UniProtKB/TrEMBL annotation:
It comes from the Bacteria. It is an enzyme of class 4 (lyase). Transmembrane segments: none annotated. The keyword Lyase applies. This is 2-methylcitrate dehydratase.
Length: 501
């Protein structure tokens, strides 16, 4: 990997375009290096994982809204919308499908200086590939690039400390991935990246306080914007430049300012794109930093015994976990039984309480209003707090995969005065966890989540398409869309009409 020093520049500086971060990313996107088998295998796993999450969410209101917005945008040679037949304009298909993927917080993650769900790259790339008749092998190459760029931006540039939402790294990665997939030149990709970043910087209020369904729409919006940016760039339109380093650019005014230097790693020429292998998926439908605590709660419940005897529970964890989903956020909504599902998904005290009581986690039952209102749950929930532990923060940011951790140490104090302590560094499903996810686990997750809404024959047809993706010719990628019987989709909420009909 090459480590690039990135800082703000004055307009009067001699700063050639080839030195801009956007251009360096474009050069990575145009590198014809082959995709290694291990990377290609993980890409197939993540396509399956996205379909599993989409199946579980397909009847939920935000997903239904996004689908209804997309359906009026029919296109003769277009892309597919998850669950339904027909072809639609690529940017709208990407919009609907990305909301379905993101709605339940149930797909992959990468955490470093910032946060990300790199599986958000897949819906826009698949939609463009379907509309333009791209070969399966080129889709795989594009996804490898998109993961590489987003993950390395997350490694090098912290957005959240400046209250910028993490989808600001997603717009450029989608643009770069589409560029690789379509074999565009570096100048075109450069312009698309600049436009995509310029139009996808937004505040983190979407993940603060009373969290709404926009949390699911935000990455879909970034993907849609990136598709449109690539389209404009392909027609010869330029972009604000240099977008990161400019005197009035992202670093100078949205991030750490003109004096700060960021270090962004990117593959050297000819170096394989392997970043996807450093990301990890979820066994539980909840914010990633709660994955290990859920498994820890399941492990501790027998040792604790009667939960009525709990006096307090303190979770010692990283700074990120404490301030984003813990009591360090100072969000009273995280203790409100009437809070939205999105808010409860970002409440570690709620999640730990329910996991302790149930010994399991479910993407619907664990968030049900009647579940959140149970008096014994509310009582236990309010006994739980988080604190930052510098060692957990250090491990969170470690670059050593064997040491990097997103867990916690739980100190449970009983009314008798007894203290029960246990800790878990990584989730059971993590590559270093007790039950690491491999193809078998991805298939099981898909089968479990798809079974209520997707017929078995359609499940097998989809999985066969994914398995043979590398050999699929142009025009055959429509098979990556899962079809759902209309009688099942009829169970979705009734949505009032809007502008699009």
């Amino acid at each position: 990997m090459l480590l690039h020093a990135i800082r703000s520049r004055r307009s009067a500086d001699d700063f050639p375009r080839t030195e801009h971060l956007a251009y360096k990313i474009a050069e990575v996107a145009t590198d014809p290096v082959a995709v290694e088998p291990e990377t290609a295998e993980m890409i197939l796993n993540r396509i399956i994982d996205n379909a599993a999450a989409s199946a579980a969410s397909v009847l939920r209101r935000p997903v239904t809204v996004a689908r209804q917005q997309a359906l009026p945008h029919r296109a003769g040679q277009g892309a597919r919308v998850f669950g339904v037949d027909g072809t639609y304009s690529a940017e709208w298909a990407a919009w609907a499908n990305a909301v379905a993927v993101r709605e339940l917080d149930f797909h992959d993650t990468f955490l470093a200086a910032d946060y990300s769900h790199p599986g958000d790259n897949i819906p826009p790339l698949v939609a463009v590939a379907q509309q333009l008749g791209v070969r399966g092998a080129d889709l795989i190459r594009g996804i490898a690039t998109a993961y590489e760029i987003q993950i390395n931006l997350v490694r090098g540039i912290c957005l959240h400390e400046h209250k910028i939402d993490h989808v600001a790294h997603l717009g450029p990665s989608v643009a770069a991935g589409i560029g690789t997939m379509l074999r565009l030149d570096a100048e075109t990709i450069y312009s698309a990246i600049g436009q995509a970043l310029h139009l996808t910087t937004s505040t983190r209020q979407s993940r603060k306080g009373a969290i709404s369904s926009w949390k699911a729409f935000a990455p879909a919006h970034a993907g849609k914007v990136a598709i449109e940016a690539v389209d404009r760039a392909m027609r010869g339109e330029g972009s604000p430049a240099p977008i990161w380093e400019g005197e009035d650019g992202v670093i100078a005014w949205l991030l750490s300012g003109p004096e700060h230097i960021y270090h962004v790693p990117l593959p050297a020429p000819g170096e394989p794109k392997r970043a996807i292998l450093d990301s990890f998926t979820k066994e539980h439908s909840a914010e990633y930093q709660s994955q290990a605590p859920i498994d820890l709660a399941r492990r501790m419940r027998d040792r604790i015994g009667d939960l009525d005897q709990v006096a307090t529970i303190v979770l010692h964890t990283s700074h990120h976990t404490h301030v984003v989903i813990g009591t360090g956020s100072a969000d009273p909504q995280k203790f409100d039984p009437d809070a939205s599902r999105e808010t409860l998904d970002h409440s570690l005290p709620y999640i730990f309480a329910v996991a302790l009581q149930d010994g399991s986690w479910h993407h619907e039952r664990s968030y049900a209003p009647e579940r959140a209102h149970r008096p014994d749950t509310v009582e236990l929930w309010h006994k739980i707090s988080t604190v930052e532990d510098p060692e957990w923060t250090r491990r969170y940011h470690s670059t050593d995969p064997a040491e990097k951790a997103f867990g916690a140490r739980a100190e449970v104090r009983l009314k008798s005065g007894e203290v029960i302590i246990d800790e878990l560094a990584v989730a059971d499903a993590h590559p270093l966890g007790a039950r690491p996810f491999a193809r078998e686990q991805y298939l099981h997750k898909f089968a479990e989540l798809a079974e209520p809404v997707v017929e078995s024959g359609e499940q097998q047809r989809f999985l066969s398409t994914v398995e043979n993706l590398a050999d699929l010719k142009g025009g055959a990628l429509g098979g990556l869309n899962v079809l759902i019987e209309p009688r099942v989709l009829d169970k979705a909420p009734v949505i009032s009409s809007g502008i699009f009909r």
